[in-house]
Design a protein that fits this description.
- By secondary structure, this protein is an alpha+beta fold.
- It has a single domain, classed as Arc Repressor Mutant, subunit A (Orthogonal Bundle).
- Helix content is about 45%, strand content about 15%.
- The chain has a 3-stranded antiparallel sheet.
- The N and C termini lie far apart (about 35 Å).
- Pfam families: HTH_20 (PF12840).
- It comes from Rhizobium deserti.
- GO terms for molecular function: DNA-binding transcription factor activity.
- This is ArsR family transcriptional regulator.
Length: about 120
């Protein structure tokens, strides 16, 4: 299996983060991953509101989020777990993620306090 690309925190660029979160579906997926606190799997994130996202589209969204440095993905057999890199990103670009998710009105429910205090 091909290894997954995860950029180092010092290689993250704000324009890549802005591009990745410019798509409302990706922003919603990222907000869910950030709110989960542990990991978001493809099957757990397949529903956004009333819309069901095809697995192939979800895979592409995860790839864009991963390559922008927003998530870290790990394979466990056939399951792919996705973890938010919010705290790392906030150290590099303070307030960026909070500002973007606030603009969408998509703050992660369980992470509001964490994002606001970082």
């Amino acid at each position: 299996m091909r290894p997954l690309f995860h950029p180092a925190i010092e290689d993250l660029r704000p324009e890549a983060i802005l591009y990745a979160l410019s798509d409302p579906e990706r922003a919603a997926i990222f907000a869910q991953i950030a709110g989960v606190g542990s990991s978001g799997t493809c099957s757990a994130l397949a529903c956004l509101g009333e819309r069901i996202i095809p697995k192939s589209s979800l895979s592409q969204h995860f790839k864009v989020l991963r390559e922008a440095g927003l998530i870290r993905s790990e394979r466990h057999g056939v399951v792919m777990s996705n973890h938010s890199r919010c705290s790392e990103i906030d150290k590099r670009f303070p307030g960026l993620i909070l500002a973007i998710l606030t603009a969408y009105g998509r703050l992660p429910v369980e992470r509001n306090e964490t994002l606001e205090t970082q």
